[in-house]
UniProtKB/TrEMBL annotation:
Signal peptide: none annotated. Pfam families: Fapy_DNA_glyco. GO terms for biological process: base-excision repair. Gene3D superfamilies: MutM-like, N-terminal. One of its GO terms (molecular function) is 8-oxo-7,8-dihydroguanine DNA N-glycosylase activity. This is Formamidopyrimidine-DNA glycosylase catalytic domain-containing protein. InterPro entries: FPG_cat, FPG_N. It comes from marine sediment metagenome. Residues 2-115 form the Formamidopyrimidine-DNA glycosylase catalytic domain. Transmembrane segments: none annotated.
Amino acid sequence: MPELPEVETIKNELTPYIVGQCITDVSLFWEKMVRRPSVEEFRSRLIGQEITGIARRGKYFIFGLTSDEVLIIHLKMTGSLLLKSDSAEPDKYVRAILHLDKGTALHFRDPRKFGAMWLVEGRNAVVGKLGPEPL
C-alpha cells in the first residue's frame, strides 16, 4: 500500500512532467473506479482540460484543472501512477489512462481494483473530513 511519503514522492515526481499538459482523451478499462460523476460525464468533462497543478491531501492526489474542477485520485492498496509514452501498450492491470497532449499518458495501474477517481467542483467534497495534515 502506498503510504504518505510515497504519495508525496509520486506527486513531486509527476509535477514537472504533467502540469501544463492538456488531457486529450480518457481510456477507462475498469469503470467502477470512477466514483463521481457518471463515467460519461467524467470523460466529457475531463477531455480538453489542462492540468494546472498537483497537490496532496492525506493519500489523495488533487489535480487542479482549468475549469476550477479537481480530479482526485486515491491509489488505495495496490495502485500506482505511471507516466508513459502515449503509444505504450497498457499492461493488464492498467485501469485508466489520461492521454496528454505532448505524446505522454498517465497510466493508473491497480491490480486489486480498489483505486478511485472523482471529478468534483472542490476538493472538500471528497477530502473535507480528513484530519490534520501530518506533513
